[in-house]
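Q: Protein A?
A:
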Amino acid sequence: MNRDRLTSLTGLSATLLAIAVSLSTTAAADSPSWNGEYAITFIVGPKGGSSIAAGQSEVQYTDTYTFRSSCTSATCTATIVSGPPPRNPTVPQPVQFTWDGSSWTQVNDFEWDCMMPDTTIQWSPARADVRYTPQPDGSLSGTMHTDIMSGPCQGTLDIFMTAERS
């Protein structure tokens, strides 16, 4: 191999290596993360949906949780690693969210605690689709769409939440 060709090949290899390192650094920098302590405020604004639960009075409240996220292959997961347990004891633990390219999402099956007029609770099967979307200010805007499968609260329920770094 002549000297000019060897110099060109070395230069091309160095350029390709620089591009590969640059792309891997960019890909790592673009990995989604949800780390640290966040105050989650539940029942932000009015509830919606077809369930009678949408019209039942519920008080806004805030709980603080610590999140830790990690990515393996093409999947990024954020897990609540500390904070109070869910107020509904049937929510699966640990609480985890998966990044879908624009939001942290979670789907889970649990039992809805339907408040009866006499203040007793009737438990009914439900499925929740939860989504937290990052906002430009660093907070996350959340929605929880719940399908209550049966019982007196049967129907849908939409609740809004916010997550702000503590």
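Q: Protein B?
A:
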Amino acid sequence: MLPSFTQRRLKEYWEHSRVGEHVGIVFADMSRATDAQDDFIGRTRSALDLIAQVDPRRFQRVQAHIKYIVHRELPSAYAMYPGKQFQACFVDFTRLHFERHPETMLWGYAAILVHEATHGAIERFGISSRRSNREQIEGLCDAEATRFLRRKNDRAAELWDEVMNRPGRRAALRARWRLLGLFTVWRRRHTAGQSTNLQGGANGRQSFSSKTNRASAAAASRRSP
């Protein structure tokens, strides 16, 4: 756990990067993809409203465990939950391809938030993620995202389950992070900023099926190890 001073400074930094707020959750933008900021705000609002509309119980969990949604580049994931002390969800928003499948992608984004909030609920019970239990915790969070997606249809839930539980997926991502480390983060920030500057806003995003090849209905998961 980080010292309280460091935690406080990080939250101050997110407040400084605040670009909006909705249902008591602060939106902060620390991404280089500045052209995507309006879309990040609008799509995040819509995803939260969708959860509230179709699944009030899981929406309460999102509100309880996510106080900040921070747009920033991540090395090999769509989102991650950094810990209950922060109550934040980091989202690499420019990985999400809304232009091709806007409704499906909105459900996927909402499922991401459900998944990350479940990490917070698990940590609240004093269960922290370790190498010995990481796969089990990820499985529980994926199961909650799948249950949420069943409110759309069974196929969306099945796609999420197929992609998230593909054999060897998380191990491969962990190995990549250990090998490339901070260079991967730097490259992701560089390409995110470059793509939006060249093509403009939403059209500069990568296809949702690229990178870790998570199917369009599935969206993505946490830090993904």
